[in-house]
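Final report, results section. Input specification for complex C-07:
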Amino acid sequence: MTADANAVLEIRSLAKRFGGLAAVDDLSFHVRPGEIFAIIGPNGAGKTTTLNLLSGLLIPTAGRIHLSGREIQHLPSFERTHLGLGRAFQVVQPFPEMTVRENVQVGALFGTPGIDRAEGDRRTDAALERTGLTRIAGQSAEELTLLQEKRLEIARALATDPTVLMLDEVMAGLRPGEARQAVELVRDVRESGVTIVFIEHVMPVVRDLADRVLVMDHGRFLAEGSYAEVTADPAVIEAYLGRDDDGTGDEDPDRDDREDPR
Amino acid sequence: MSPNVRNRLRDLIPVLLFAVALWFLPDLLRSWSGRASVSYLSLVTNGLGLAVLALSWDILARTGQLSLAHAAFYGAGAYVTAILARLEVGPLWLGIPAAGAFAVLLALGLGVVTLRLKGIYFAIATLAFTEVLRSAVRQLPTSFAGGSAGMNVAPLFRPAFDPETMERWEIAFLRNEGYFLLYAGLLLLTIGLSLWTRRSRLRPAFTAVRTNEEVAGVMGVHPARMKLLAFALSSLSVGMLGAIHAHRVGSVIPEGAFAVSTTVFALVTPIFGGLYTTLGPILGAGVLAGIEETLKRNLADGYLIGYGLVLVLSILFMPRGIVGMVRGIARRRRAARAGVTSEGGEA
Amino acid sequence: MDPILILQAVVSGVLASGLYALVSVGLALAIGVIGIVNFAHGEFFMIGAFLTYQLFVSFGVDPVLSLLFVAPALFLLGAVLYRTTIQYVLEAPELNQMLLTFGIGIVLQNLALLIWGGDPVSISGIAYRSVGFRIGGISVGLVSLVSFAISIVLVGSLYLALSRSRTGRAMRAVAQNRIGASLVGLEVNRVYLVAFALSALLAGIGGVMIAVIQSPTPTIGLAFTLKAFSIVVLAGLGNIRGILAASLVVALAESLVATLVPNGGTLSNAVFFAIIFLALVWRSRRTA
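Structure output:
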């Protein structure tokens, strides 16, 4: 099976089972270079699991992942990063005991093999500048506001020089003003030639940013298309409404309990 | 002066000063205290040994691997040199680098096998490993390794006695001085290794692996390689320490070479002094070695209790060790002076 | 390969497994309910043994009677340790917890060394110590038999208490969901206290028995901590039946090696540790 030449990221029949439970089942989609691709779905739809499968934190039970035409589903995380797949995490995990700059440096020095000190510094500075962190670069990573932490996550991922950047609920917990800044940042990153794949719950953001949207439910593919298309899709509406009936308020932070076996 | 060069100098100068001080210390002691310097020198040597033990353990801890197998590499080093000495394979001192090399191989083996183990499971596995090794050594043929009674180890230094120029006690002094210099050299080597992991790109890599191995991987760090490298660096020092110590003491015995107390010293000292730093373990060693003498003299059988108390109290009141505490105070003072709150506006 | 010999080894192993189960269940309680791996658990066992010895030597108290003293004494010790140290590291990183209990273990062990020295102590001169039965060619010591019975009864009672009693259910609730439990009004800290003290008590009772069966030294604590831990790991947390099974496996292995392998006595410890090591490594490979 050859990969779609136009796709920078191609997923075919991806599946992940935990015991008898299928967190992700027969999922297929592709992402075109330079686009902003959103993955949405009700709680527990398997979105974060999918991201974990893509970045190598989980090994798929079945299916294939192609990055720029190359099969990567059996590769460890760091190799995928070297090939250009970057990720910013939902629960921000800065490395404590290090400054903002040093945090970004990790990504810069190791994101691609064979980077020397000078080049690493260059990339670090570039990433800091892009995310507006240059001023607080010397600050300890333990003393940041939420927005600063999220910028740091993105800066760190950018420093690894990704072709595809995956973002997991960047907007969660941000105030409207901050969210607008985050949206600007994401647009900025795309302008520089990076493909974006992001999970999001905040719908206005998805509407503003996404070129295409994938809707997942129960670990499966539900719908795909533009924001307008999927939100008009009756199956999608039902999936969301059906969940709301359970009383799981859609204001909750994503609680994909099937995702993380730890 | 570029920041990198400045940093290097900032590290090198204290180390050089330290090396110089160590070089002149024995003679200074001799002129100051004469005969008593024999035991003083021995005490300082113990302190240096503890520092090597502590610093080498800390290097491994920087990758989040809290090993209880330090005694295993120490003992392995001791036995390698003892066996080589007995077999008379080459000059006596050869046993020391051989011990280091063997310890590294052993550590890599253990490291590979325990890569997926974390936290308490890793600790228990390393402890079990040490126990198995000790029993295995005990089972070795007596002619080869001495069995459970152990065997003697030839000393490295046999100073010649010249009645014209020397007093009797100076033989012991020269012998102690020899070992002192070896320990000092080993400590300087270990300091070098520690600084390397603290100043090079290894520092962010080790810290990343320690903080969160998965996230580190996603950042492009090769976690297994980092962990194994740490194992190798850590065991090199402690293996050679075990070897030198074996010559100094003159014998090896399974219970002593693989004693749990070695591991206890190795981990209590950096926690007390300050984890993940170069200065912390050395500082901790200085203080604890001093206390240990007093403890040993007064408490014989249960003197380790002092270490236990230090450990408990450190965890409860000073989890970042002396260095961490000092740094914390300095940081708070700086922040108070600058009048900054941690809200920091948007960058 | 004398079948009688093998059978004897099996019987001895089975009887010894009771003690292992008792000590392990205590540790499982601490790990499962509180979430803390108590490196000092074996020291409670050791203290139980030495208290028994001292009571016997100083006051002539029969070990059976000393149970009445040792049990509450160790409960108290566990409670005090929890209040003064353990409860402060519950939110701290696992490293700190591990090191704290390790330090407590060192303190307790060396305290015992200071008080009793490093040599083995034995309780001699008790009539029932040498009483035994012979069935077929198999000899069974009365003490071993009674220890086994007591252990099984205690483990069984704990199992029942955890499933039926209010405190037991509280412990299980806390074990599963600390935040949820406190929201419902359970005083989590008190539950932890009881759980920890209880784990010390169970280990201590085991210690009383070992004082009669063997000649303990103050250093047996660490070995028992390791054994208890491996049994708990082998059994899977929160699984009392698993602990019984794992204890049986471990005790049998030890007994068989000691009997059948030449020089087995000294080797059995090493074999045991090798099993732990391999089990841990194998387990880590499986969860990939």
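Chain B touches chain C at residues 66, 113-117, 119-121, 123-125, 127-129, 131-132, 134-136, 138-139, 148, 260, 264, 267-268, 271, 299, 301-305, 307-312, 315-316, 319 (CB under 8 Å). Residues 3-33 of chain B form the longest helix (31 residues). This concludes the modelling results for the funded period.
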